Amino acid sequence: MIYYIIYTSKPTGEITPETLKDITSVSEKNNPGKKITGMLLGVENKYLQYLEGPEENVNELFQKIWKDPRHQNVTQWIKGYSKERVFGRWSMGSWMLSYSELKKMPALADLKKFLDDPLNNDLQSKKFMSMMHDLLKMWIEEEAEH
């Protein structure tokens, strides 16, 4: 079983494509040794991250993020176990989106709802996991176009 955490945070500075690229670069170096994979989204000056891997390693990384002064309002929303990795093809993917872009992607409509109201009872874990799978598919398609 693969352990996962989904959390949000607000950066202390502005999220830019360069910011995400820098974070992804460091993650690509550090995560393989800890068997951690995942996806980091920058959406309207919020981070949404899905981390997966061995429970001890994921929790250790999450605690490091939680204590990182570059993050504020770090909140873990969902945690659990999955039979397989969602983002097993790389150590960390990243994608920067705006709310206007989310509106153009019906498969990701719940992502905006989650960011606006993470305690929304309509967003059950299975539904959110399905959305993350859709996000992965769309991210791969987007990357293939560039």
Q: In a nutshell, what does this entry contain?
A:
The protein has helices at 17-34, 55-67, 99-103, 109-116, 125-145; strands at 2-11, 37-43, 46-53, 71-82, 93-97. With 146 residues, the chain is of the alpha+beta class.
Written overview of the protein:
There is one protein chain. This protein is of the alpha+beta class and 146 residues long. Helices cover 45% and strands 29% of the residues. The protein is built from five helices and five strands, in the order βαββαββααα. Strands 4-1-3-2-5 form a five-stranded mixed beta sheet, sandwiched between helices. Strand 2 and strand 3 form a beta hairpin. The longest helix is centred in the C-terminal third of the chain and has 21 residues. The termini are far apart. The mean pLDDT is 79.
